[in-house]
Amino acid sequence: MSETPKQTLRERLKTEAAADVEPAMTPDVGIVMGSSSDLPVMRDAHRALEEVGFFEQSRIEDPTADDRHSYETFIISAHRTPELMMTYGQTAAERGLSLIIAGAGGKSADLPTMLASVAFPLPVIGVPVDEAALGSVIGNPTGAPILAVDAGKAYNAGLAAAQILGADDPELQQRLTEAHAAQAAAVAAESLQLHDEGVDLSKP
Ligand code: RP5
């Protein structure tokens, strides 16, 4: 009988964990989400990371450029693929990840909190994909910490991941500072334009 995609994925994660690849060659950030339906929200985490110089690394053995960080993306459901969630969390550190961004939506958004427990001591940033998920993502008990952003704020999860990794990386800190300054300039430019041109009441 041929291997199922779930078996293939679990085996790949275990093989990569056992391969003992140089950490500089592996993705730094794992972005995971409970469903492909989370992608429209979670893409903002990718956008934030790309804006400060990260790139997506599809295979662990793909070499990374010296001065850049990378991330990977998977769909992992706490309820529909619990074994995969366990394998991902258990192999995360050995596969060279430094932290995980995990998003889930709905009233049973258990992926971020469960991954935070399985992958401990790796930090996990939880993204409640919608308002319904907020309570279940931020509600971890004492001793099982999770970092979390507000509902839908995957962009901030990406930025926060870069901030954490930038703690001992001056070049990444510099890119973060530049992105922050560009954002401030854009807000100021918008403010000037709105003030000088006045509010257009014909627009929604
Ligand atoms: C959660 O259930 C997922 O994270 C998603 O936000 C939600 C709905 O999933 P689908 O029914 O769209 O696959 O586990």
Essential attributes:
204 residues, alpha/beta, 6-stranded parallel β-sheet, 7 helices, 6 strands, 13% strand, binds 5-O-phosphono-beta-D-ribofuranose
Q: Mean pLDDT, nearest integer?
A: 93
Helix-strand topology string: HEHEEHEHEHEHH
Whole-Å distance between the termini?
58 Å
Number of helices: 7
Structure description:
The protein is of the alpha/beta class. The chain has 7 helices and 6 strands; from the N terminus they run αβαββαβαβαβαα. Bound molecules: 5-O-phosphono-beta-D-ribofuranose. 5-O-phosphono-beta-D-ribofuranose binds at residues 33-35, 37-38, 77, 104-106, 129.
Per-chain topology:
Blueprint: H1 5-18, E1 29-33, H2 39-51, E2 55-56, E3 70-75, H3 82-91, E4 99-104, H4 111-119, E5 124-128, H5 134-138, E6 147-148, H6 154-165, H7 170-197
Parallel strand pairs: 1-3, 1-4, 2-3, 4-5, 5-6
Helix pairs in contact: 1-3, 2-6, 3-4
This protein binds 5-O-phosphono-beta-D-ribofuranose.
5-O-phosphono-beta-D-ribofuranose (RP5) is lined by residues 33-35, 37-38, 77, 104-106, 129.
Structure at a glance:
The protein has 204 residues and is an alpha/beta fold.
